[in-house]
Structures are given as structure tokens and as C-alpha cells.
Design a protein that fits this description.
The protein is mainly beta and 298 residues long. It is built from 2 helices and 18 strands. Helix content is 9%, strand content 44%. Strand 12 and strand 13 form a beta hairpin.
Length: 298
């Protein structure tokens, strides 16, 4: 159990980081790749997977500025009650208009060996990287690639871009389709709790091609953390037909006006679909769930 002092420090930490990051989320353009001072990636991995796969993540960052920038990065471990560190102690330097590719970023930047996954924040915001000297208004473009490197014939993977459009702070649903759980393809459902201080309850419903409910339930997510489940573990039987997943916040967790608070309850979700159940190429697709009412406080 946290002491009152620890909890106070946690709340102060979240306040500093939260104000800057939420301002970023509220003002982003709705695009497939985002140019912004802060970018958020819901899933990275350095872990073994089904079908003898071995997953790692690369990070690519481009500096759009005419000046050198200090880039702050923060990893948020899956299935863990995370607290933002507002000073972003993990950093690297990026020259003017430089592009850097950091292969196996969880090992290279954070020192993890294996069996780890989670989310990541990348920022050049001077409020979040104190002492960096980054000019106000500095922006970057970043993306990640998570791939299977176990096949000697080559790697097979999926690009995971930052996408603020996928954030849902409303009582309405997010929906993802193109999902398959067959004898050839397997799919995983991931949900990221983007609430800084509290757990979050998310309802889900999985529909078959005719719209009938295959299974439904609710998941409770730790603060600032992502969790992922195979569809098989959620009770979805193998079938060759397409599936669609609906997700929405528990009514008791929804705020009437998420733009009126520094700490809105919100989430994003995705599906990772892999060719191989267990036999196949190991190639993967990443699909964000689209919210009916994207988070936008402009």
C-alpha cells in the first residue's frame, strides 16, 4: 500500500506530465502519421510469442527542427500500475533534421533482455524534458515497427504509428474490424488505459460476420498501462469468418465532460493479427480501434 507521501508524489508527478500530454492529445491533427511534440505508442515488445515467434520493436524518430533536440522517452510496462516521471530521465540527442533508427529499442534504450511489453511516450516538449533547451514549438515525427525475427528467411512485422485519433474519452464505442481467429490466423486484443491515476473498466463485445455475439465481457486495466489477450483466451473459437470487436467504457467510469478535467478517463484499443496459428509466416497486421467520438477538446 502506498503511503500518503508516496501517493502525493504520484499525484504531483501525474499532474505535471498530465497537463502537458493532455494538451498534446487535445490539439493533434487527425492523421495516419502525426507531427507533434509528443507521440504515444500503445504497444512495444521484446518477447517470445506463439508459433516459435520472437518479437522485438524498432523506433524511428525524425527531427523536424532546424536545431538539435533532446528526445525524452518513457516506457510504461504492460499490466502494471505505472506513474509518469515528468523529468523523462531516459533521453537521447537528435541533430537538426536528423533521423535515427533505434533497433530493438526496449533493449537498446531501456536495457530489457526479454519477456517484456508495454507502451511508450516520446517527446521533445521542453515542459516534459526539463533542462533540454528544446525550443518551444519543437516537433518530431516518429513511428515504431514490431516484428518477428525468429525466421532465418527474414523478418515479418507490423508498423505501429502514433495515432491520437484512436483515443476514446466518450461513452460511445470504439470498433475494430478485420479480426480473424481461424486455423491459419490468430488475433490479440490490446487495450491501453490512458487514465493516469485510476484503474479503468472496459466492456468488450466480439461479433461474428452475421453480427451475432460470440463472446463479451469486461476488463479492468491498471493506470497508464496496456494489457493484451489472445482471442482464444477470451473464449473465441476458431472460425474462418471475419470478426468485429466493440469496446466502451463502463458507464461508472465515464466523465460527463472529459475536456473539463486534467485527468479524463480515456482509452485506446487495437488488434494485432498474425499469420500463424501456429503454422504460417509469422507476418502481422496492426489495426487501431476507431472511436465513434474521437477525443478532441479544440
Amino acid at each position: 500500500m502506498k503511503s500518503k507521501r508516496d501517493r502525493s508524489l504520484s499525484e504531483k508527478t501525474a499532474t505535471i506530465a498530465g497537463l502537458a500530454i493532455l494538451a498534446f492529445f487535445a490539439a493533434l491533427p487527425l492523421s495516419a502519421q502525426e507531427i507533434a511534440h509528443t507521440q504515444f505508442f500503445p504497444i512495444l515488445a521484446r518477447t517470445a510469442g506463439a508459433g516459435n515467434t520472437q518479437w522485438v520493436t524498432d523506433l524511428t524518430v525524425h527531427n523536424l527542427a532546424d536545431t538539435d533536440l533532446t528526445v525524452g522517452v518513457q516506457f510504461l510496462e504492460a499490466d502494471t500500475a505505472n506513474v509518469f516521471n515528468p523529468s523523462f530521465p531516459d533521453r537521447f540527442e537528435l541533430g537538426a533534421h536528423e533521423t535515427v533508427l533505434i533497433a530493438d529499442v526496449l533493449n537498446e534504450l531501456f536495457g530489457y533482455d526479454t519477456d517484456i511489453k508495454g507502451a511508450m511516450v516520446v517527446t521533445v516538449d521542453p515542459q516534459l524534458v526539463p533542462g533540454s533547451g528544446n525550443p518551444v514549438g519543437s516537433e518530431i515525427l516518429a513511428t515504431t515497427r514490431t516484428y518477428n525475427k525468429a525466421d532465418p528467411a527474414g523478418t515479418y512485422g507490423q508498423t505501429v504509428p502514433a495515432l491520437s485519433y484512436a483515443i476514446n474519452a466518450a461513452p460511445t464505442k470504439s470498433v475494430v474490424t478485420g479480426v480473424v481467429n481461424s486455423t491459419r490466423f490468430r488475433s490479440n486484443l490490446g487495450i491501453m488505459n490512458m487514465t493516469f491515476l485510476n484503474t479503468l473498466r472496459i466492456n468488450y463485445r466480439i461479433l461474428n460476420g452475421s453480427g451475432a455475439v460470440v463472446t463479451e465481457g469486461m476488463k479492468t486495466l491498471q493506470p497508464a498501462s496496456v494489457s493484451q489477450w489472445s482471442l482464444q483466451s477470451l473464449g473465441v473459437p476458431e472460425s474462418d469468418g471475419p470478426l468485429t470487436i466493440e469496446l466502451w467504457m463502463h458507464p461508472g467510469d465515464v466523465l460527463a465532460d472529459p475536456c473539463a478535467t486534467n485527468f479524463p478517463t480515456m482509452f485506446m484499443a487495437y488488434v494485432s493479427k498474425v499469420d500463424g496459428n501456429p503454422d504460417g509466416t509469422g507476418d502481422a497486421e496492426f489495426i487501431y480501434a476507431a472511436p465513434n467520438d474521437p477525443y478532441d477538446c479544440r
